[in-house]
Each structure stands twice: as structure tokens, then as C-alpha cells.
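tool_call predict_complex ligand=DQA
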Amino acid sequence: MNLVKKIMIINGPNLNMLGTREPDVYGSLTLDQIIEHTEKLIDSSLCQCTWYQSNVEGEIVGRIQQLISQDFSALVINPGAYSHTSVAILDALLLLKIPVVEVHLSNTYKREDFRQIKITARASSILMEGLGKNAYLMAIQSQLL
Ligand code: DQA
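tool_result ok
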């Protein structure tokens, strides 16, 4: 029996700009550095992570649809700004039978009004906010308990 859980992590628009993008809000690490930090602390005998980033809504919808026929046990998604706008990503997420964890590096409740609506989070079983560079680590670990 395979005990290693396969977890997909999807990052939406502008998360490829972490490191230079509003460091006071998102910290100074790049996405690659956050991935390295996360991978270092994850027990690879329990979990295998696949990372994907796109700035394009339709590409994210397509990657989510592919999960239907793949053997991932959970999806962690930071939809970025699409969280607040995308019914298309919500509808794709609702196709999935695996748990969905939505994460945001920042605590959006401390931010602008337009960030208070999270359309995509309606499809998630867990919503985690404000954990900065540890956001993905905590989201992945929530699926290993
Ligand atoms: C974000 C929060 C969103 O409001 C914003 O548009 C992002 C990043 C976060 O991780 O805190 O792109 O998802």
C-alpha cells in the first residue's frame, strides 16, 4: 500500500512576483524560496508535492480539471486575486472530490473591502490566512493529520 500522499499546490496570478511584490505585505522570499522552505520541512516519506503557478485564469481552470483523473489526495490553492473574482475557478474546484485547502499569505481581513469576498473559498474545506511563508506548509500538514 502506498502511504505517500500526493498533494497538488496551485498558485494564481502575481504570486510569481513574490520577493519583489509588496514585501511589507507578503514578505521578502520569492515563490521558489517559499517552495524550498516548505519542501525542507515536509516529511517526504509522508507526502509528495507538485507545484504549479499561472497568471492565467483559464490555465488554472484547466489544471484543476486535470485533477479529476489524477490520483492527488488533496489540493492546496492560493488563487491570488482570482479568489475575489473567479466563478470559473470556483466551478472547477466544485468538480473535485478531493479536499481543497485555500490559502492566503496575508490576512486579507486586515486589508481592503474588495478582498473580503472569497468566491473560490466556497469550494474549500479549510481556509487559512496570514501565515506568510508558512502558509503552504501548514495547509499541506493539515492534510497529513
Ligand atoms: C493573496 C491575497 C489576495 O488578495 C491577493 O490578490 C494576492 C495574494 C495572499 O496570498 O495573501 O494575490 O492571495
